[in-house]
C-alpha cells in the first residue's frame, strides 16, 4: 500500500470527519430511511430515494476516509528545518509580474485548502518549489500562461 504524506493536523481533521460521519451522519440517515419507509410505496417515494442516495454518499466517504487514514504517513513538520523547500514548509512567494506576496504551506493532497493557504505536494506550484532556495525564481504553468515567482522566505513548523 502506498503511503500518503500528511501533517498531524491534516490527519486529525480527517479522523474528526470520519468520527462525525460514523457517529452522527450514518445513524441520522438510517433513521431518515426508516421514516421514509414507513410512508408506504417505495417505488414512488422521493424521500426514500433521496435518503438512500445520501446514505450511499456517506458510506462512500467513510470508506474513502478509512483508506486515507490507514495509508497516512504523518510527517512531523516541527522537526524539519533547512534552507530548501520541502513538505511542510511555509513558503513566501513574490509574483514577479504583480509584486504581490503570498505565503503557502505545502501539505498532503487530502489536506490542501487554498482558502487556508495550504497547497498539495502534488500541485504544479509545489512541484516547482520543492528543492528550491530563498532568492530563486520558479516558473509555474497556469491557465492564463506561465507565472514566475521569487522565493522570499522558507519556514518550518
UniProtKB/TrEMBL annotation:
One of its GO terms (molecular function) is translation elongation factor activity. PROSITE patterns: GREAB_1, GREAB_2. Necessary for efficient RNA polymerase transcription elongation past template-encoded arresting sites. The arresting sites in DNA have the property of trapping a certain fraction of elongating RNA polymerases that pass through, resulting in locked ternary complexes. Cleavage of the nascent transcript by cleavage factors such as GreA or GreB allows the resumption of elongation from the new 3'terminus. GreA releases sequences of 2 to 3 nucleotides. Keywords: Coiled coil, DNA-binding, Elongation factor, Protein biosynthesis, Transcription, Transcription regulation. Residues 4-31 form a coiled coil. It comes from the Bacteria. Belongs to the GreA/GreB family. It holds the Pfam family GreA_GreB_N. Residues 82-155 form the Transcription elongation factor GreA/GreB C-terminal domain. The gene is greA. NCBIfam families: greA, PRK00226.1-2, PRK00226.1-4, PRK00226.1-5. This is Transcription elongation factor GreA. Residues 4-74 form the Transcription elongation factor GreA/GreB N-terminal domain. InterPro entries: GreA/GreB_C_sf (IPR036953), TF_GreA/GreB_CS (IPR018151), Tscrpt_elong_fac_GreA (IPR006359), Tscrpt_elong_fac_GreA/B (IPR028624), Tscrpt_elong_fac_GreA/B_C (IPR001437), Tscrpt_elong_fac_GreA/B_fam (IPR023459), Tscrpt_elong_fac_GreA/B_N (IPR022691), Tscrpt_elong_fac_GreA/B_N_sf (IPR036805).
